[in-house]
Specification:
This protein has 13 helices and 21 strands. It starts with a helix and ends in a 5-residue tail after the last helix. The mean pLDDT is 97. The protein folds into three domains: 3-194 and 365-454, Aminopeptidase (3-Layer(aba) Sandwich); 198-250 and 296-362, Alpha-Beta Plaits, CATH 3.30.70; 251-290, no CATH class. It has a six-stranded mixed sheet with strand order 1-2-6-3-7-19, sandwiched between helices. Strands 13-15-11-16 form a four-stranded antiparallel sheet, with helices on one face. The longest helix is centred in the last third of the chain and has 20 residues, at 434-453. By secondary structure, it is an alpha/beta fold. It binds ligand BES and manganese (II) ion (2 copies). One manganese (II) ion binds at residues 90, 119, 153, 425-426.
Amino acid sequence: MSAIDAYIETHKDRFLSELLDLLRIPSVSADPKYKGDVARCAEAVKQRLIEAGADKVEVCQTAGHPIVYGEKIIDPTKPTVLVYGHYDVQPPDPLDLWHSGPFEPVIKDGLIYARGSADDKGQFYMHVKAVEAMVKTGTLPCNVKIMIEGEEEVGSDNLGLFVKNNKERLKADVVLISDTAMIANDVPSINTGLRGLSYLEVEVTGPNRDLHSGVYGGAVANPINVLCDMISSMHDKDRRITIPGFYDAVKELSTSERKALAEAPFDLEAYKKDLQIDDVLGETGYTSEERSSIRPTLDVNGIWGGYIGEGAKTVLPSKAFAKISMRLVPDQKSDAITKLFKDHFERIAPPSVKVEVRPHHGGEAAVTPIDSPAYLAASKAMEETFGKKPIPTRGGGSIPIVALFEAELGLKTVLFGFGLDSDNIHSPNEHYGVFNYFKGISTIPRFFQHYAASGHKA
Ligand code: BES
Ligand code: MN
Ligand code: MN
């Protein structure tokens, strides 16, 4: 057993209880009522980085939630790995569907249940513990910089500015992020792509006030009916998005690229069974895996208006609203797609209503190389700890800062995620495997060793 593995083994219980402590802090970035908790979480992360042996540890204030930064420079001539993660979490709602409190972590059947356990506290904390193990055993083979932000779940707006203003401090050779999923615990994989995002809200206004649906119904536009018509018109019979120009920039994959992706094991029947659906639905001509990774989408995330209280109320509402997001693929640009949507939505609105489109956040898609020294180091590290070579896959989620790291710092990323799609991230009963947590902690130092040995530069 290596000195690092022995160190991890000795400190296992503490590594776990420290994560549980972090999970007890409700660092929900979206809701202002948790602002103090988010700040408290940043301080806790700072403390843990200091204890792990990092230098120059600092809580950096921003216009929003703070960024925590620390580094360990052993030799400036050696390569530098920039680790990124986020300590903020999604709101825990709906609360009544949780089997235990979202911020009262419990371990059941080898799974750590809590909001943020997989996304991303459990995953970024693996790096803090891996760095601790390397520092304390005197085996850190290259430089490491760690940046953990508090606004990933709300679009990373202030991190973009921080990166632009701190190019020297963040100078590195590669970015390492654990914030994605693998195929299964016995089928390791590495994400090599993320989708971009365009998120907006629409408001449809009919009459200037709510009306009696018997007195006016049938003669005056119902904004909810109209909004539903408009939304459903945005997919055609092949489930393609009808916004003119939407697919113009989409980079189609070659037959051989699609073939390579299809090599990842996928069981459609098990997929349907897990979700208790009789059938899937998506764009004609693409598989379920392709639909959820290399193809763009348009989804309503929330829709409201009219009467939704107990019982019935016959009302023709004045307004209807929806939150709509589009997942984007290379080379669609978030701002351009937002504009296409806005123009289209305003154009298709009938004269009987007024519409307003309010953009939220966005982010660009990213693809990462599978032949770089860093990818190969990650692949070797996983092969050693899982006993199987990881399969490169394309993911469907978004981490907008990845494209920015490339644009602003010229850095490529390795998406070294140890979660599973079944972890219920953003959903009630989010969980992360104790197996996955410790697998990450033991695999990360091996990445550092292989990467340092490769003589660096991405
Ligand atoms: N960790 C996720 C992204 C993710 C999940 C990537 C699973 C690949 C697989 C991240 O925290 C996230 O949720 N991102 C948001 C984007 C953000 C702009 C709100 C997302 O994808 O919805
Ligand atoms: Mn995340
Ligand atoms: Mn998330």
